[in-house]
């Protein structure tokens, strides 16, 4: 008779399969009908969705949970946010940033979000941001994969020490190369920054993730240069373009040329729907653009697209929970991904597709993979998006890291049931 450390029984996997999952040590030892097996701990997941963990491909952990410090963003714009952050990063101590980030990671774990790619601002010469985030990365390593991107917020070329500090951050152990070409002084400087950043990544064997064209300017076309450099340096499959909001406003004929270039270069796209629709279109009257990139059109071309969170309670965004289902829910609405297949894909975008963007090893519900999963109080991925329900149980690398009791509302209505769960199945 098989014996496991943890046995999750009767759960519904994202593809609709009903299966037990047996965990031994840090890995998944068996999936299927494991009736009669013994286990140190058994989780009854009958009727519940069992999913691989959520993955966030775009976040700013050095700024999170700082909302209101030193003051709130009065205009609500991207540029006032950048100014505010410029003050905050000089005032915040390493310990403060570590404490805020660890608080956020607690939220993340409770929501089944177990892998995060975070951009770290490499602008200040003291690099306290980098010191703090490397410390957080080490502290959360047993239960959360934190991947760090060296991000020259004030420009790689525009900031006097932009280049030098980005390289110092990589030498300190930051593992992905970032950039912000649309914030450099000229289009030419933007392109030059991408050339150099991609060369640095190619030399060091690193991944690339660029804040690319986060603007409403339809002529902001740095994604074209990023695709060119990616192919020139053989970085296919290793580069991501974050935001790409200018594509929302671009001329359709130009986009018809651009999409195949992105596909050829195997560049992944990371729109951040909560933030993009909040920050973009601020110079518009009506009609008012919402700045989300062309998600469905990219997917139709075979381009990988993952939804990112970007901000939670920081100089750019006053709300946010850390729940990737909130992110996917908003993305689904704004991109109008409303068919059953498109809705299910939105769930995959915050799990499997984001895991691929991060190049995570051993991710997913298969035998031999890392034993990381989340049990949701929903019947399937689409219901999870609709309800954004409680995470009943979160297992990371073979350890139970969060548990929540099922919390049905109790009704007091004549002739009606005593409790309600708000689940709803399509009649078959
Ligand atoms: Zn960002």
Automatic annotation (TrEMBL):
GO terms for biological process: cytosine catabolic process. Keywords: Hydrolase, Metal-binding. Residues 419-428 have a biased composition (Basic residues). Gene3D superfamilies: Metal-dependent hydrolases, Urease, subunit C, domain 1. InterPro entries: Amidohydro_3 (IPR013108), Metal-dep_hydrolase_composite (IPR011059), Metal_Hydrolase (IPR032466), Metallo-hydrolase_Enzymes (IPR052349). It comes from Alloyangia pacifica. Pfam families: Amidohydro_3. This is Cytosine deaminase.
